[in-house]
Write a structure and sequence with these properties.
Blueprint: H1 6-20, E1 28-31, E2 40-43, H2 45-54, H3 71-74, H4 86-100, H5 121-139, H6 141-144, H7 151-155, H8 201-206, H9 227-244, H10 266-285, H11 308-312
Length: 359
């Protein structure tokens, strides 16, 4: 039996190291832009197969009649969705239980001794999240289009969405004498283990800091787009790319990344998505901070907030574009089920008794 020489062992080790860096099965490349611009999306079939299971939409509960007594007239303390019929209301509650708390059931939000009371914080949060869902579907069509969202888009059968973010603790030695590390050189999952600033969410998805890389004016006046500032933008872009499972070319033309006129339509959709996440975090989630118990808050005491991964979870469209919202019109229209508003009476024109009659 022959044995490998030292040189052979070294060669074998090098070969193993090289091959271990290769993806199997071979990735697929799909052209997404004009030829010659290197605008291609690269996908690994194995990863796509795993994501397909994660992004399957659940079965739809058959629709029910909108006729009959209203929920607000039959049940107590129905502050949202009261205009639904009892049948529609029960259908949505059943769906929400499957979307959010399939293991815990109704008692995740309700006191079984008195369903009407708000003693559980989860019920207060669920009510506000229902309003947030309606807002997304009604006011942010520039991002969600007609596909819309439901509770399942984020929760996927989990009481707490698996992809949320909190403000991180201050970086150790951030203010040491040698200088502020600016959240760098501390690889984090938020930026796919890169050495970019590990909290690109606070400045852009909570605050309204400028997202830019290239300056449009020469130094020293007017140009505040330094390399350090650009790295925060790169952190957000890396997060978005990973969240959607796409390359930079999904939203940008590689020959002119900053040019809006040469970018695909997805860039506009992403622009609105950033602002949608910022609006939801500030208008709906941050105000709920005092409602949550301490064990549900982050290390700095803030509430869980949304970013791109919260909905997308590796898919370029959440649930690969399954239009779940169309089966729940009550989550698209805040006034669904309400009687139509009476038309305002037309005021009679004032008559001047001294005016001459029309000829």
């Amino acid at each position: 039996m022959r044995t490998l020489s030292l040189q052979g062992l070294v060669a074998l080790g090098v070969a193993v190291a090289v091959l271990s860096g290769c993806e199997r099965p071979p990735p697929d490349s799909i052209q997404s832009g004009f030829r010659g611009t290197a605008m291609q999306q690269v996908y690994n079939p194995r990863i796509l197969a795993d994501q397909a299971d994660l992004n399957k939409a659940p079965e739809v509960i058959p629709a029910v009649s909108s006729e009959g007594p209203k929920a607000k007239d039959v049940y107590q303390n129905v502050q949202v969705l009261g205009n639904l019929s009892v049948g529609e209301f029960t259908r949505l509650m059943t769906a929400m239980t499957a979307w959010v708390s399939p293991q815990e059931g109704c008692t995740y939000c309700h006191n079984p001794a008195n369903f009407a009371e708000d003693s559980k914080y989860t019920k207060v949060v669920a009510r506000r999240m229902t309003e947030m869902t309606q807002t997304i579907n009604a006011d942010w069509k520039t991002h969600v289009a007609a596909t819309g969202v439901t509770c399942y888009t984020c929760h996927r059968g989990n009481p707490v969405p698996q992809n949320v973010w909190f403000a991180p603790l201050e970086q150790k030695h951030a203010k040491r004498m040698l200088g502020n590390k600016a959240q760098q050189n501390t690889p984090a999952e938020s930026v796919t283990l890169a050495t970019l600033p590990y909290d690109p969410f606070t400045p852009f998805l909570l605050q309204d800091q400028k997202i830019a890389v290239n300056g449009t004016t020469a130094l020293p006046t007017g140009n505040r787009q330094s390399i350090k500032q650009a790295e925060w933008t790169f952190g957000l872009m890396v997060h978005m790319s990973d969240s959607l499972g796409v390359n930079c070319t999904f939203c940008h033309n590689t020959r002119a990344i900053s040019e809006w006129k040469e970018s695909p339509p997805q860039r506009v959709t992403a622009w609105h998505g950033i602002r949608m996440a910022r609006d939801l975090n500030n208008a709906y989630l941050e105000p709920l901070t005092p409602v949550f118990p301490k064990n549900r808050l982050g290390p700095t005491g803030d509430v869980a907030k949304v970013n791109c991964t919260t909905c997308h979870q590796g898919a370029y469209k959440p649930l690969y574009g399954a239009p779940m919202a169309k089966d729940h019109p009550e989550l698209q229209d805040r006034n669904y089920g309400a009687p139509p508003a009476a038309a305002a009476p037309i005021a009679a024109a004032a008559v001047d008794p001294l005016a001459k009659p029309a000829q």
